[in-house]
TrEMBL record:
Taxonomic source organism: Nitratireductor basaltis
Signal peptide positions (record): none
GO terms (BP aspect): DNA-templated DNA replication
Highest taxon of the lineage: Bacteria
Name of the protein described by the UniProt record: DNA polymerase III, delta prime subunit
SMART domains on file: AAA
Amino acid sequence: MFERIAPEQHDTLPDIPEPAENPALFGHLETRRMLAQAYRSGKMHHALLLAGPQGIGKATLAYHLANHIFTHPDPREAPEDLVAIDTASQSFRLLAQGAHPGFLHLTRPRNDREKKFKTVITVDEIRRVSRFLGMTTQEGGFRVILVDPADDMNTNAANALLKSLEEPPRRTLFILTTHSLGRLLPTIRSRCQTIKLQPLPDQDLFTVLQGIGADMPEASEERALLAARSSGSVRNAVLLTQFGGLEIEQALSGVLGQPKLNMTDVFRLADAASGRDRQIQFDLFNRLALDRIAERARLAGEEGDTCTAASLAELHEDMRTQLIETETYNLDRRQHIIGTISTLHTKLGGMPQAL
């Protein structure tokens, strides 16, 4: 029976380990070894930017690297590959509980008054960096700051982080994760070593799913379909198999593939993804919608249609802003979904739809 010890995050899934408490790390073998060797040699960049799709293990890798550093505070004595997690160690327990004195995790904060998480990483969160760096470390050890994901910083927060990145104290490591490099300020990207992580191979994906007890299709054809639609992301696969993701994806594909919107189908989908107890389904719908726009923009760019690509990129940002406003001001989620479907049908209607 899985027992959570990590604090709940804005994107926590029931019965799925948080990166902070996950002792298993799959994929990214070359990157893991490169980071371990950079630490051992004393040539670790002061700011790492781990880039790649959501759910492929970026934050988990960040925690494993932090555990490696805290387990071997003297880089010269550290092994050439990341050490396996010892779940009985004090370092692991403190990291998992968010209580390690050498580690600061910055993500969307919880609004206790409204009993929900904020939609962005605020400047107040980033200001915690100065207070954290002002504290004395244990025996001069490393301090690690994780911003996860850095995409969620608003403009003020991003500008505040820049000041810390420009003049980092000695033996301080910043780790930023990003699902989309284009969302970050160029000035932040320029101060980091960007490491692009690839989606997990199918074998690793299925191994992780089996390890967490996820429902797995038995037929090889269904497994192949799940792998294709998951795009190498464990989070995608879990959402698709355990939280109605496949049904939402199929319903969205159905309404967008019609020459004229069938409002009965639209209302049915809006009801299924907007209920009070359907936060995960609402998030999943919006990710599917935004992913469609991003994919079409990518294809347009590859075909040399820069005008369409730019227009779709602007649409992606507009719809992302609308989503943030819906969450921030408690707007009607059902109407948000209906409006999103209408916009997608107008802009993408009649084109092939895929996860």
